[in-house]
């Protein structure tokens, strides 16, 4: 699983999920889903994570999936069925809207 390697390398560099998410311009919960194998690892995201962790993108992927990466530069699907980069974008937007709604509700409750 690439995500366990991502988590291992992130921890070695003493980076938090929040820091990684900030550098990747996604929410912490969207990043957590990538790291915990709950969503597809889009190749653009894999390259960005590899750059932050200062390692080749191949390091993040299992050996048996390297051929898939070379044949499809757009999406690493691994054990996922049909999840795309669009899903990551939608998840990020939803996470942001939920955070905004929570802030609004807290503000309303304190008035």
Structure description:
The chain has 111 residues and is mostly helical. It has one domain (2-109): 434 Repressor (Amino-terminal Domain) (Orthogonal Bundle). It contains 6 helices and 2 strands; from the N terminus they run H-H-H-E-H-H-E-H. The chain has a two-stranded antiparallel sheet. The longest helix has 25 residues, at 85-109. It is elongated. The termini are far apart.
Keywords:
111 residues; mainly alpha; 434 Repressor (Amino-terminal Domain); two-stranded antiparallel ribbon; 6 helices; 2 strands; 61% helix; 4% strand
Structural class: mainly alpha
Order of helices and strands: HHHEHHEH
Quick one: CATH superfamily? lambda repressor-like DNA-binding domains
Query: What composes the largest sheet?
Result: 2 strands, antiparallel
CATH topology: 434 Repressor (Amino-terminal Domain)
Let me know the average pLDDT. 75
Query: Number of helical segments?
Result: 6
Work out the strand percent: under 5%
CATH class: Mainly Alpha
